[in-house]
Write a structure and sequence with these properties.
alpha+beta; Endonuclease III, domain 1; 356 residues; 14 helices; iron; 8-stranded mixed beta sheet; single chain; 8 strands; 4Fe-4S; Nucleoside Triphosphate Pyrophosphohydrolase; oxidized purine DNA binding; 41% helix; DNA repair
Length: 356
């Protein structure tokens, strides 16, 4: 497609003009503090602003400086992140804070090329921090920007392909304002998030509609093009909720699988929904009760099907159970401490349904 059909300068001016006329008050806007900008960008990856905003406030309250975050225990960081999903972001956030505090004396890098070397900081986040905090002329390209550029300039290249990413980045770098790179980056992201939205965009009130390729060629619903090659895997999980004498049995999840570092219950993974599993416990007198509700939880590459069984064990077996739990890599947690554990959303949903 020919990118020259829309004048670059006119495009940038229209985006900035719309942004200035339609301000959105967000706590990280107007600041040049790289810590707060970095925090907001990591939280907002794969998260809507409305969902991410309370987490941003929690983090800047609990960890007002990169030093506070760097010195926090990982478990506390994961607990604060609970409910946001994609927990590798939280672990990378914590690791990166330690990099900046301990290796760089608390100083954030001030250029795209240095920022992208940090743990968990990709090209989009590096461009956002370098332009917002340091005025570097480096264009951000996120889902919103892909959508705006694909529609306005009529680009049919697959945005998930290497070729597409290079093509969009090259165009975005040509379009970015020379004088206000940070403001322009915020403007185009906002434009995509609020006006040029995925479904039912507000084309009639769009300042670019007369020069928009997708609008004039009736292709708004067809652009951008994304060929999804990701195969979604189904997993069947049977959790065992074991209680004894005011304590519950929990397991901290290992690396190499989903939810690393978070806490859930002992489980058996099944080949299919029908397969039945029992748990080999060290005591015989026990009643197993299956909860009637089945749970379905979607992750980016996995579809989880979960069921829960409850096992109440007489308090006189607590010492025996404690020994078994330690041998099996589990831990006994007193009921009043459960709230402090960092747990995946699936487990939180189950506990909420039980009124816990």
């Amino acid at each position: 497609m020919n990118h020259k059909s829309t004048d670059n300068q006119a495009f940038s001016n229209s985006i900035l003009s719309w942004y200035r006329s339609n301000p959105r008050e967000l706590p990280w806007r107007g600041t040049q503090d790289p810590y707060k900008i970095w925090l907001s960008e990591i939280i907002l990856q794969q998260t809507r602003v409305a969902q991410g905003l309370p987490y941003y406030y929690k983090f800047v309250t609990q960890y007002p400086t990169v030093k506070d975050l760097a010195e926090a225990p990982e478990e506390d960081v994961l607990r604060l992140w609970q409910g946001l999903g994609y927990y590798s972001r939280a672990r990378n956030l914590h690791f990166c804070a330690k990099q900046i505090w301990f290796d760089r004396a608390g100083e954030f890098p001030n250029s795209y090329e240095e920022l992208i070397q940090l743990k968990g900081v990709g090209s989009y986040t590096a461009a956002a921090i370098s332009s917002f905090a340091f005025g570097e002329r480096k264009a951000v390209v996120d889902g919103n920007v892909f959508r705006v550029l694909a529609r306005v300039f009529g680009i049919e290249t697959d945005i998930a392909s290497g070729k597409g990413k290079r093509e969009f980045q090259e165009l975005a770098d040509q379009l970015i304002s020379k004088d206000e790179p940070g403001e322009y980056n915020q403007a185009i992201m906002d434009f995509g998030a609020r006006l040029c939205v995925p479904a039912k965009p507000e084309c009639e009130s769009c300042p670019l509609k007369s020069s928009c390729f997708a609008y004039t060629h009736n292709l708004v619903d067809s652009l951008p093009v994304k060929i999804n090659k990701t195969k979604v895997k189904d997993r069947h999980l049977h959790y065992f909720v074991i209680r004894c004498g005011g304590s519950w049995v929990w397991k901290r999840r290992n690396s190499g699988d989903i939810w690393e570092g978070l806490f859930d219950f002992p489980l058996a993974e099944k080949a299919n929904q029908e397969e039945e599993h029992q748990l080999d416990l060290p005591v015989e007198s026990q009643e197993v009760r299956k909860f009637p509700k089945k749970y379905r939880h979607l992750l980016s590459h996995q579809r989880l099907h979960a069921e829960f069984s409850e096992i109440d064990i007489d308090a006189r077996y607590q010492e025996k159970l404690q020994k078994w739990a330690a041998e099996e890599g589990f831990m006994m947690v007193e009921e009043d401490r459960i709230e402090q554990l960092a747990k995946p959303k699936l487990i939180v949903n189950f506990l909420n349904d039980q009124g816990f």
